[in-house]
Design a protein that fits this description.
Length: about 80
């Protein structure tokens, strides 16, 4: 895969589909409601290749979310309102 610019990554339909599934899984299964822009920033910073390879299966998404949930405090800052 050729290098992707940030704009191409943000507008990539495969990335957006994967992030949509991750958002849903994190909210429903792990009780974490992550802002879409924050999730996109995370993906750009930590998992560009995985997100943009192909549309992942729900099993792959669930496995990814388990790991993300396990290390949630490392990747995201929790702000109380």
């Amino acid at each position: 895969m050729a290098r992707m610019t940030k704009a191409e990554f943000w507008n990539n339909s495969i990335v957006n589909d994967n992030l949509s599934e991750i958002y849903s899984c994190m909210k429903i299964c792990h009780g974490k409601d992550i802002d879409g822009d924050e999730l996109l920033q995370y993906a750009w910073r930590y998992s560009k290749v995985w997100m943009s390879e192909y549309r992942h299966t729900m099993h792959e998404i669930a496995t990814f979310c388990k790991e993300l949930n396990r290390n949630f405090d490392f990747y995201f800052k929790i702000i109380c309102r």
